[in-house]
Design goal:
The chain has about 180 residues and is mainly alpha-helical. The chain has helices at about 5-15, 20-30, 40-55, 75-85, 100-105, 110-145, 150-180, and strands spanning about 55-60, 70-75.
């Protein structure tokens, strides 16, 4: 089985203590990991099954009341694969898929007022994301830090800083566009 980035995401989360498919999904949502690596909930369980079949993880039954649940753990093969991936010297090029930014790239095709409205919507989106990082994600990250995990906090801080920068830059762009409207 050729491991994909989503495979390593799951291996890393299991190694970090997220042992069920549900806890993996919840962590991805709470930490807004989808900002930099989108993973659909529907992918998690098939990926877990493939990782188990290939010998990277194993599970034990861990019912929670009436609900059936499996608790996963890394096998030595899974541990080696995760650490090998983390230690790779080549970092792939960054991918950023953002339809809002794609629209902005073509905003010259819009009348000025519609371009400004698009910029305002993008700014509002980043304002909301920055607020969510400050009020929800960073506090969760601090709890993780208290548990000995440093780097989820760093990633959360980078996300918060990105959105704060985007708000600032989009505010400037809106002002520039409004200034160009003047005769």
């Amino acid at each position: 089985m050729a491991l994909k980035p989503s495979s390593y995401l799951i291996l890393g989360l299991i190694r970090g203590g997220m042992t069920s498919g549900y806890s993996i999904k919840r962590f991805i949502e709470q930490q807004r990991m989808s900002v930099f690596w989108a993973t659909a909930f529907a992918q998690i369980y098939p990926e877990l099954a493939q990782l188990e079949e290939a010998g990277y993880v194993t599970h034990r039954e861990d019912p929670q009341g009436a609900r059936q649940r499996r608790a996963y753990s890394l096998t030595p093969k899974g541990e080696r694969a995760l650490l090998s991936w983390l230690r790779r010297t080549r970092v792939p090029p960054m991918e950023l898929r953002d339809e809002g930014l794609l629209r902005l790239a073509f905003a010259d095709n819009l009348p000025r007022d519609e371009a400004i409205a698009l910029v305002q919507r993008l700014r509002a989106r980043s304002e909301e994301a920055a607020r969510e990082f400050r009020e929800q994600i960073l506090p969760i990250g601090e709890a993780l830090r208290a548990g000995g995990l440093r780097f989820p906090v760093v990633v959360g801080q980078l996300g918060a800083e990105y959105h704060a920068w985007a708000v600032e830059r989009l505010t400037q762009l809106e002002a520039e566009l409004r200034g160009e409207e003047s005769p």
